[in-house]
Amino acid sequence: MKLMMIAGELSGDTHGGSILSHLKKLVPGLEVFGVGGPRMFAQGLKSVIPLDNLQARGLVEVLRQLPSHYVYLRLMKKLLREERPDAVLLVDYPGFNLKIAKAAKQQGIPVFYYSGPQLWAWRGGRMREMTRWVDKIIVLFPFEVPLYHRAGVDAEFLGHPLVGVEATPKEVADFKTRITLREGLPVVAIMPGSRPGELERNLPTVLEGLRLVEKTGYRANYILPVASTLNIERVRELVRAGGIPVQVLDNAFLPLLQVAELAIVASGTATLQVGMAGIPFLVVYRVTLLTYRIAKAFLYIKDASIVNILAGRRIVPELVQRKFLPHRVCEEFLAIANDKARQQQIRADLAKVKKILGKPGAYGRAAERFAIHLQTLGKTTQKLEPAPARNAARSPSLH
């Protein structure tokens, strides 16, 4: 069987690689080509376009890449006609992938989707496009299912893939040997984002806010885990300029979640992981002014953090765009840090959010569902093996 897969970002590559590892066991002899990164390569993906060529963050950045994206779209549509895959499996990245979905369906090729486009966050009726172009979609959050169903899309929630993703005891022990802690002081995680642009826009303001925090007499052990997508030397340079004693470490994200008591986190996947770890935190974020104005015109959700969206109310504070100022960082952080009762309430609220995200093993269940649908469509005659109850190996962090 021949399958086209497309993941346009590193997080999508993580999803795609994990699903593909299970899908290969369910569909022996599977051939896969398309767009992905190292995790999908490791599972046998034949790359047509390098993942780096598609990555962009923010509406303005995407607009700059439109000319090259149309070149890649033409190439992928050409491959659909020439290679005639038995099915297409798309992962997130809606601006590009929905166009591929349309082209595939027009050629009678079944289209499956994992990590549904967050069209529920945007004004307008783009979600209805999914009805025409997508046969099956697996979403990451339970509240998405009725929204897609109302639009006529066959959607299903099988659990969030980050549930159960934790550092091992050995990883935590090794991490503790790498850090220096001042006894009696809390551990505060600083997570400014995983992309260079996010780092530059977020970290300086966070550090300025922490300088104000320290002037009040508050002290803590600040630790910043550096994402693999960032230049660690640039992070250290910004920290030195900030004048705050922050320990900068690579390969530290998951272990830090087992140690941190409080956190300041840029809006994104990291907020979900911090939330599932039960750590009270402050959400911060800033994008370019043009990106913000465009988003404000089309977005109708009020909260930036997915934990607040899942809770249906603001359980952790947010400082976004114009509100993201040093003195506000100081005020909001201290309001949590100095209030034990509020910390306890946030932890209780986060525990409720975690419960609705399902059980470990989401990738295996998704792969089984896709394989079953392929069999139903008559695209494979292989007997399906039962999907494991849990992931065979610990899934990687999306941070």
Q: What secondary-structure arrangement, pairings included, does this model have?
A:
Blueprint: E1 2-7, H1 10-26, E2 31-36, H2 38-41, E3 46-50, H3 59-64, H4 66-83, E4 87-91, H5 94-106, E5 111-114, H6 127-133, E6 136-139, H7 144-150, E7 155-157, H8 169-178, E8 187-191, H9 196-215, E9 221-226, H10 232-242, E10 246-250, H11 253-257, E11 262-266, H12 269-276, E12 281-285, H13 289-298, H14 306-311, E13 318-320, H15 326-337, H16 340-355, H17 362-376
Parallel strand pairs: 1-2, 1-4, 2-3, 4-5, 5-6, 6-7, 8-9, 8-11, 9-10, 11-12, 12-13
Helix pairs in contact: 1-17, 4-5, 5-6, 9-10, 9-15
Give a written overview of the molecule.
The protein has 399 residues and is an alpha/beta fold. The protein has 2 domains: 2-163 and 359-376, 3-Layer(aba) Sandwich (Rossmann fold), CATH 3.40.50; 169-355, Rossmann fold (3-Layer(aba) Sandwich). Helix content is 46%, strand content 16%. The chain is built from 17 helices and 13 strands. The protein has a 7-stranded parallel β-sheet, with helices on both faces. The protein has a 6-stranded parallel β-sheet with strand order 10-9-8-11-12-13, with helices on both faces. Strand 1 (2-7), helix 1 (10-26) and strand 2 (31-36) form a beta-alpha-beta unit. Helix 4 packs parallel to helix 5, helix 5 (94-106) runs parallel beside helix 6 and helix 9 packs parallel to helix 10. It is elongated.
